[in-house]
Amino acid sequence: MYKIISNKKLAENIHEMIIEAPRVAHSAKPGQFIILIIDKKGERIPLTIADYDKEKGTVNIVVQAIGYSTKKLVSLKENEYIKDFAGPLGNESEFVHEDIEILKNKRIVFVGGGVGSAPIYPQVKWFSERNIKTDVILGFKNKDFIILKEEFEKLNCNLHICTDDGSYGFKGLVTNKLQDMLDNEEIDEVITIGPMIMMKFVSKLTKKYNIKTIASLNTIMLDGTGMCGGCRVSIGGKVKFTCVDGPEFDAHLINFDEAMNRQTTFSDIEKKHSCRLDG
Ligand code: NAD
Ligand code: FES
User: Fold this and answer.
1) Rounded to 5 degrees, what angle do the CA atoms 51, 57, 62 make?
2) In this structure, is residue 269 part of a structural domain?
3) What domain range is 212 assigned to?
4) What is the pLDDT of residues 53-92, one digit of tens each?
5) What ipTM was assigned to the predicted interfaces of this complex?
């Protein structure tokens, strides 16, 4: 059993939960995910690790309560328990294996969208802890949906917050901000996590400029074990499993349209089950 240390609402339907899971925290690296099961009747929920503290033995997850299980998860309180919390799973981000001196000379831009900003956090933190300054573009619908702003502000990064309606920061989509930067500055690499449609357009944009781009396909996963096949994606025409071969891939090789189609496969069933908690 895994104890819930805290459960904090960050925005409407978005919660940050800190879970006591020392073994996961000890081995966690940026880019990896966990699978949790709430109770003995629960389904497997894959979630990207949003932060970890090896000393305290805790792992942070950021949950968007959209379906039956995620709504049930965020309704749990501090000091309650989760049945299973397995991880870290999946491959760590590629940059973890790169030469630090090479990384120091690279201009890396992170592009996060909405809840997808959360898994960007441990990546930017990894660079920050090594005194490497990165640029971070985060996009939200409006100021009420902004998450983790104070946490990012504490890191060694140039933070650019965008809102679709201009209620905070830059007015426009993350791709508008990225376009500005690409037109005016030298950028070596882009790492993007967020809605599939956002990552598709980030990738389309950087392809024009021939800039290496990595995208995380975490949200397409179901059981996260390599067994169900639900996370199959085409990468450069080859079939890959997100949970085993990813979750991060070369964005220019991803067939985003196919991945978006696959994401909708179970939406009717999910809606039906989600109503069970809405009453
Ligand atoms: P959202 O719909 O509010 O979008 C966030 C931002 O993405 C927008 O503010 C905008 O700047 C940008 N964006 C959206 N559509 C775009 C488009 N067509 N072109 C360019 N930019 C666009 O995000 P949300 O409601 O918080 O949803 C978050 C999504 O992130 C969910 O779909 C979730 O599945 C996904 N997510 C992905 C991962 C991952 O690993 N890929 C992890 C967590 C969450
Ligand atoms: Fe089921 Fe990858 S999520 S095989």
Assistant:
1) 30
2) no
3) 94-216
4) 999 999 999 999 988 899 999 999 999 999 999 999 999 9
5) 0.91
